[in-house]
Amino acid sequence: MELADRAVGLLLSSISLSIFTYYTFWVIILPFVDSDHFIHKYFLPQDYAILVPVFAGVTLLSLLSVFIGMVMLKSKKKKA
């Protein structure tokens, strides 16, 4: 079981690091590269640099709120 936990942890860390590297390059470095450079075809337009994290944050907060609400309702039913 410990080996499986390590594998999952390594996988999640690798995915997080690759997303962080991609986003950092997209937002910080790419605006200084010429717009006709070939590297631009691997990235979305700059408008999405704000929309994607905002959408992800709103989705995460919504799901977290629903989860907390369900837990609160279950605990209220147990007390009654």
From TrEMBL:
Principal localization? Answer: endoplasmic reticulum
Q: How does it assemble?
A: Component of the dolichol-phosphate mannose (DPM) synthase complex.
Subcellular localization, as worded in the UniProt entry: Endoplasmic reticulum membrane
* Keyword hit for rRNA processing: no
Q: What does this protein do?
A: Regulatory subunit of the dolichol-phosphate mannose (DPM) synthase complex; essential for the ER localization.
Q: Superkingdom, according to UniProt?
A: Eukaryota
| Entries under InterPro entries matching the protein | DPM2
Q: How does it sit in the membrane?
A: Multi-pass membrane protein
According to UniProt, the name of this protein is Dolichol phosphate-mannose biosynthesis regulatory protein
Q: Which is one GO molecular function term here?
A: enzyme regulator activity
Pathway given for this chain reads: Protein modification; protein glycosylation
**What transmembrane ranges does the database entry give?**
7-29, 49-73
